[in-house]
Design goal:
15 strands, twelve-stranded antiparallel β-sheet, 246 residues
Length: 246
């Protein structure tokens, strides 16, 4: 409506397969098929998708996941767990909520401030692994991913999260820019029978140097998290055609 708002209703039909490549303390292998009807509201006044210089963006998406019985094998230290009910797992349906708000403010010539808030949650504690949100990375490259500067892609799995982000960007010229990002997250605040994240609070920082090239943006980022205490690097090349994967 008026090129700023959109209302949508849709249906996802997915089958998710899990096959671990190495043995850990607790392994999950199998598949799950589910149907997910959803409603979506989007409001967008940003001037462009990549590196916007002004405007706001809002996404609100409630959905319901109707899950078929799981076909899974659980192993603890290599030994199969035969009684899954003892872990408090079931195949019930549940509600999912996603919310994202972003505001880009031009501070002065070549200076831009981006503020972002994000929340996501599965309102059911027994649908482990298959429907968790995966946290980490700077670009959405996988299903259910929530970006977080400071940790690698999918480093943290959770059923609930609240995130805040502030980014300052300086445009050296029309194609060269630098940015500083600070973000924090509180996660796993909904009860989980299956497992519990030891670090419910995450914080991370990133310093980015980017160039807009003919084949898409080329970005180099050095990032650090207070929880991992490891300096990592991240490279991104190419255009992003949507804000999220799924």
């Amino acid at each position: 409506f008026k090129r700023r708002q959109s209302y949508a209703a849709g249906l996802h039909l997915e089958t998710v397969y899990l096959k671990p490549l190495s043995e850990t303390i607790l392994d999950v292998q199998g598949k799950n098929t589910y149907v997910q009807p959803y409603l979506r509201y989007e409001y967008n006044t940003q001037d462009r998708l990549f590196l916007p210089r002004k405007g706001s963006y809002v996404l609100f998406e409630p959905s319901v996941i109707f899950s078929r019985p799981r076909d899974v094998i659980l192993k603890s230290n290599g030994e199969r767990i035969l009684n899954l009910d003892s872990l408090g797992l079931n195949d019930g349906n549940f509600l999912r909520m996603k919310l994202q708000v972003q505001k880009v403010i031009p501070l002065r010539r070549r200076h831009y401030l981006t503020m972002q808030g994000e929340a996501a949650m599965n309102l059911n504690s027994s649908q482990f692994v298959f429907h968790d949100f995966v946290v980490g990375g700077l670009q959405p490259v996988m299903r259910n991913q929530v970006n977080f500067t400071g940790i690698a892609d999918a480093a943290v799995r959770t059923n609930s999260l609240v995130k805040g982000l502030i980014n300052w960007r300086y445009q050296f010229s029309g194609s060269v820019y630098a940015g500083l990002t600070i973000n924090a997250m509180y996660c796993s605040f909904l009860r989980e029978e299956f497992y519990d994240n030891p670090d419910k609070f995450l914080s991370g920082y990133g310093l980015t140097l980017g160039i807009e090239s003919p084949i898409g943006p080329l970005e180099f980022t050095f990032m650090y998290s207070d929880q991992s205490k490891i300096l990592k690097n991240y490279v991104n090349l190419g255009f992003r055609f949507s804000r999220a994967m799924f």
